[in-house]
Write a structure and sequence with these properties.
alpha+beta, 3 domains, two-stranded antiparallel ribbon, 55% helix, GmrSD restriction endonucleases N-terminal domain-containing protein, GmrSD_N
Amino acid sequence: MAKYSVHQQPVETLLSWIKSGDIAIPEIQRPFVWNSTKVRDLIDSLYQGYPVGYIITWRNPDVKLKNGQLSAGKRVLIDGQQRITALTAAIVGQRVLDKNYKETTIRIAFNPIDEKFEVLNKAIEKSSEWIDNINPIVNDEVSISKAIKKYIADNPKANEDLVEERIENLKRIKTKQVGIIELDAGLDIDTVTEIFIRINQKGVVLSNADFVMSKIASDEKFGGNTMRKMIDYFCRLLVDKGFNKHILDNDSTFSQSDFYKEIKWMATSSDDLYVPDYIDMLRVAFTFKFSRGKFSDLVALLSGRNFESRSYDIEIAEESYVKLSEGLSAFVNQTNYQRFVMIIKSTGLISKKLISSQNSLNFAYALYLKLREDGMGEAESQGYVKRWLVMSMFIGRYSGSAESRIDEDIKQINEKGIVAYLTQMEQAHLGAGFWDFGIINDLETSSVNNNAYNLYLAAQVNNNTVAFLSKSMKISSLIEQRGDVHHIFPKKYLMNNGYPQKAYNQVANFVFTEQATNIKVGMLTPKDYLDKVKAQIQAGTNEISTLDSENSLKENLINNDIPSSIEEANHLAYEGFLEERRRLMSNKLKVYYESL
C-alpha cells in the first residue's frame, strides 16, 4: 500500500479547499505563533518563486452512514497550519489571534519599484510608494488596471510598464505552487508519526494527543470543534484568570454555550497544585469514559472504527464524541476537580515540587471519576484513590511506557474491581522487600527530585510534623513558604573533612528547619550544636532552637526520624548515621502508606 502521495497545487486551489471545508483546519484557539515578519517572508518567497515547504494532510477514513452509504473523509491538516494561517491572513484577510488572544489583522504592504514586502506600519501607510495592503489585489477584489492607475496617480514619476509588470507578478502569487503530502487513510497513527518526523526537518515530534486535538478540532458534525475550544480555554484559565475577559469580549458564541458554563468557575479559582495541559485533560477523560489508555484507540473511535468488523461506522463516531464530551465535562466539573485537589493535599502532597509524575495524578483523577460514577461512596473512593496515587509514585508506575501501563491498569480495574487489583499491585510491588531494601535503596541519593524523598516529606506533612529543632513551626508551612533545607551534618563541616558533594548532599542528611536555626548551627558538629541546644534549654534561652525542654528535643528528633546516635556524632559516624536514618525514613513511609 502506498503510504502517501505527493503533488503540487496552486495557492488559490489550496485556499478554495479550505473555504469549502475539503481540508479541515483545526480551530486551534492558541495564538498564531508566527510573527508578522514571517508572514511577510512567506509572501516574498511565493512572489520570488522559492519553495515554501510542504503541507501534510491525512485523509480521514471513509465512514459508513446510517443509510449504508459511504461518506468520503476530509483531509485533516497534520503540518503546515502556520503557513496556511499566514496565507489566509495575508491573502484572504482572515483575522488571527495575537499573543493576548485578541483578534488582529496582518496587513502586508508591497513596493512595486523596489519589489519589497513589509508588514504595514504608520510610515509605510503614509508613503505613496507602497501599496498598503496586497489582499484586495491578490484576492481579486481590485482589478490590476485599477491598482496600476491608482499607483501611477500617487506616483506620477514611476515607470508605468515596470509598475504594471510588478503588480501582475504580485497577482500571480495565487498561482504559485505549494507542495502537498497526502497521507493514506489506512495508515495507523504510529506510521503517520514516523512519516511526519522523517519529512519534518525541524525535529518537531507529534504526540498522539496532537492527532486527537486535530481530529476533534476539525469536527463540526458532533461538536468536536467546540469541545476543543473548551479544552484550550480551560487550560488557559488555569494559569491566566484574566483570560476570562478575552472569552467574553471575543467569543460570544462560546461564552453562551454550556461548555463555558462548565469552565467559567476556574476564572476565580486560585489553586495551582494540579495544573493539567490539554494532553492531561484528554488522558483523564479518555481513560475514565472509555476504559482505555492509548490515544491511537481514541483517534480510531472518533473516526468511527469498529474494532470487530474493521470498518468505520458513523454510529461509533457519534457515540465516541458523546462519551468524550461527557468525560471532559466530568473533568472540568468544579465539585469533582476541587474534591480531587483536596484528595491530593490530604496525602501530604501539598506542593507541585513534591509531585514528579503528572500521569500518576491523571490516572488517580480518572480513577476517582470512575469510582464515583460506579456509585462508590465518597469516603471509600477517596481512600482507594489516595492509595493508588501514592503507590504509583512509590514504584514509578507511569515513568516509562505510560500509555501501555494506563491501558493495562484501567482494564484490570474494570475487570477485577479496584479492591482486588490494588491488593494485587500491593502484593506484587510493596512487599517486605520493598520496605526493607527497595525504598532504602531509593533514598540513597543526592537528588531531591526523587519520589521516595518527596513522599517522605508528604508523610511528614501528613503527620503535622514540626520542623527540626523548632517548637511549633510545621514542615508543611516551610514547604509552602520555600523554607530552608538544613544539613544535619553541616555541609562545610563535611567538606572540611574530605566528603564530596554527592556524600554531604544525601537526602538522608536533609531536614526542614527555620532559617535562623540553620544560620546559628553554621559549621558545628551535630554533637556540638545539640549540646548548645541542651545548654540553652537549661538556661531558658533560645538562640539556636525554640525548644524549651529536653523531652521536646527528644520528641523532635524522633518525629524527624533522626537516630539517637546523633547526640554524640562527629564526621566519623556519618556513613552509619545515613544508613540508620534511611531505615527510619522507610519505616515512616510504610506507616504513612498503611494509614491512607
